Amino acid sequence: MRRLLAAAELVAALFLLAIALLTSGNVVLRDVFSYQIPDWYDGARMLLGIALFWGVALATYYGSHICVDALWEHLDTGGRRQLDIVATVCTLAFLVPLAWMVWVKVAGTGTQGTMDLRMPLWIFYSVASVGTTVAVMLAIARIVLLWRGETDRLRPPALDDQAEATHVA
């Protein structure tokens, strides 16, 4: 599981880096040399979609998405776990059709391409679709871990490191 999470974090981070490099590279080239990277805008949009879908996978597993804990804070440990299970099942109920429809979109792109370089869009959509599929898998894994009461395995590794550093000191 840790390998899948690390891979998802790496994919999301690499695509965010690619967006930053593409955008800043285009700005420098445009301002300094009056040249624009072909398809930089379409490319940045596609890369952003990929990064978002992979980020949704991570946020779903870690339960770190933006939420209001007004009810959750007033529950005991068992109630919190039950509410987390219900919330994750609801998230899964939305992720499954989303993943399905993104794969349908991949199948329907045909020969569509980007404006300048005519790069096939199905490549970008496929990588994003894998991200939605990983989100579904991680939501199921989260439900199973919550059901078993193994909530400590749902923390991001950075929080584990901070907890160990605090505990040792």
From TrEMBL:
<dbReference type="InterPro" id="IPR055348">
    <property type="entry name" value="DctQ"/>
</dbReference>
<feature type="transmembrane region" description="Helical">
    <location>
        <begin position="46"/>
        <end position="64"/>
    </location>
</feature>
<dbReference type="GO" id="GO:0015740">
    <property type="term" value="P:C4-dicarboxylate transport"/>
</dbReference>
<keyword id="KW-0813">Transport</keyword>
<dbReference type="Pfam" id="PF04290">
    <property type="entry name" value="DctQ"/>
</dbReference>
<comment type="function">
    <text>Part of the tripartite ATP-independent periplasmic (TRAP) transport system.</text>
</comment>
<keyword id="KW-0997">Cell inner membrane</keyword>
<dbReference type="GO" id="GO:0005886">
    <property type="term" value="C:plasma membrane"/>
</dbReference>
<keyword id="KW-0472">Membrane</keyword>
<feature type="domain" description="Tripartite ATP-independent periplasmic transporters DctQ component">
    <location>
        <begin position="19"/>
        <end position="148"/>
    </location>
</feature>
<feature type="transmembrane region" description="Helical">
    <location>
        <begin position="85"/>
        <end position="103"/>
    </location>
</feature>
<keyword id="KW-0812">Transmembrane</keyword>
<protein>
    <recommendedName>
        <fullName>TRAP transporter small permease protein</fullName>
    </recommendedName>
</protein>
<keyword id="KW-1003">Cell membrane</keyword>
<comment type="similarity">
    <text>Belongs to the TRAP transporter small permease family.</text>
</comment>
<keyword id="KW-1133">Transmembrane helix</keyword>
<feature type="transmembrane region" description="Helical">
    <location>
        <begin position="123"/>
        <end position="145"/>
    </location>
</feature>
<comment type="subunit">
    <text>The complex comprises the extracytoplasmic solute receptor protein and the two transmembrane proteins.</text>
</comment>
<dbReference type="InterPro" id="IPR007387">
    <property type="entry name" value="TRAP_DctQ"/>
</dbReference>
<dbReference type="GO" id="GO:0022857">
    <property type="term" value="F:transmembrane transporter activity"/>
</dbReference>
